Amino acid sequence: MSTQTPKVFISYCWSSPQHEEWVLHFAKELMGHGIDIVIDKWDLKPGHDANAFMEKMSTDNSVTKIILVCDRQYTEKSNRRSGGAGTEAQIITPQIYQKTEQDKIVATFISIAAHRPTEDMALSVHRFFESIYNYFFSPDNVTSYRDDDCDNYKFIIHELFLYFIAALIKYERFATIDFFLSTEFYLGNSRSRRGKIMASYPIFRDYLKSFELRAKRLRRISPRADLLKERCNSVGIDFKHLMAADLILYIRNATDELYHNHWWPETLLYSTIDERVIEMFARAKSVAYFTKMIGMLNTSSVDTFKAKIEQIKARRDSIPKWSFHTLDLDELIGTSELGTVR
User: Phi/psi at 252 (nearest 5 deg)?
Assistant: First the structure.
């Protein structure tokens, strides 16, 4: 068992004196729990290069975690790639995309959502995802770019979206998931979706050209699924929760008669290797437990849900396949056992 003292770098924005004071108080609380803290206020010496300091924090092997304190100003600067927060975002995001030791990066909103899932908090996280959607595209001042230039951002945002839903599943916050997924996302002035202003959550899972090339080079079925699994270590969320999140996102999307964008459940490739009922569906053998999930599943009863699953299965082209592996919905859901215990 490792006895190494955790070392955490805190990335934040100097939004206001009150915010800086809150961040410093937070840092002191972490220190009180035996965590070694690195923060610019304490560790960046006057006259030293701030950019070099930020880059060192994202590459230093002694730094075991990076906490991003994402307030409104941090997000705005990150979106514009300006200021310290914007610089840190550009430095940190390629690092977490390229390195499997991604557990150094902690998105604090996931923990907040898991432990304080009020509607206001869910709405704040919802707005956060709206604000980072522009990272799917090159900045307006960039006129020359390749199709895969933003793949690192696309991967990270997709991964974070999965983590948020997975955290809510872990703590059985099914009503919060329903609220989060039922509320469309405002795209504003983004250069995508052919001028659409509002869109549903599948926009956060996009095609990544770089992974297609990687699959050919490595001769892997899905390097994207592999990377999601590899990076799901020491972050407080088991890979089984990521698969559960992917399953819910896929089912809800596939049973929406109005959906136009498809959610492809990357992680469920691994379910075809080790097929077993997803935990929350195993518990849904109980009518009372299934009733808690009704809103999240966008259904009204066990029978209605089973009918929706049959409709998905009837559209064979909508069932995910990987090489010789096909998703078995009945196996993952335990369809025949749902709601059989009162």
Answer: -65, -40
Q: Are 150 and 81 in contact (CB under 8 A)?
A: no
If we measure between CA atoms, which residue out of 30, 39, 33 comes closest to residue 10?
39
Pick out the chain residues at pLDDT < 50: 1, 81-82, 86-87, 91, 96-97, 99-106
Return the closest-CA partner of residue 133 out of 109, 115, 116, 158.
Answer: 158
Give the length of the chain. Answer: 342
Q: Residue 2: which region, alpha, beta or left (left: phi > 0; alpha: psi -120 to 50)?
A: beta
Q: What is the pLDDT of residue 18?
A: 87
Instruction: Express each pLDDT in 212-271 by its tens digit.
Output: 877 887 788 888 999 899 888 767 788 999 999 999 999 999 987 655 568 999 999 999
pTM of the model: 0.71
User: What are all long-range contacts of 295-302, with beta carbons under 8 Å and residues at least 24 apart?
Assistant: 295/174, 295/175, 295/178, 296/174, 296/175, 296/177, 296/178, 296/181, 296/248, 296/252, 297/248, 297/251, 297/252, 298/178, 298/182, 298/252, 298/255, 298/256, 299/255, 302/338, 302/339
Dump pLDDT digits (tens) for 254-264. Answer: 987 655 568 99
Question: What does DSSP assign to residue 315?
Answer: S
Sign for the pseudo-dihedral over CA of 184, 185, 187, 191: negative
DSSP string, 135-179: GGS--TT-----TTTTHHHHHHHHHHHHHHHHHHHHTT-HHHHHH
